[in-house]
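I trust your eye. Have a critical look at both lines of this record:
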Amino acid sequence: MSFVFDIAFGMLCLAGLLSIVRLLRGRSTLDRIVALDVFVTLVVAATAVGMAMRSDGSNIALAAAFALLAFTGSVSAARLVEKKEPYR
């Protein structure tokens, strides 16, 4: 079972690296906001995989709070950008 967790962590790390590249090279502000939201989602998923690997659910509330905070930040940032930037 450890092999599955190692593969899951590897894939999450690769996806995180790609989202950081998109965050740095994004053409518009909305691209960067989406990349940051994807990165936060990957962090929450990695936390869930780590909890499953250790069979310890003590960080579930922390992961849920972090996901909710990231979602709220993404929605508010997208609303601000929508008002400031014209549609392309």
About this structure: The domain at 2-84 is CATH 1.10.287 (Helix Hairpins). The chain has one domain: 2-84. The two ends are 47 Å apart (CA to CA).
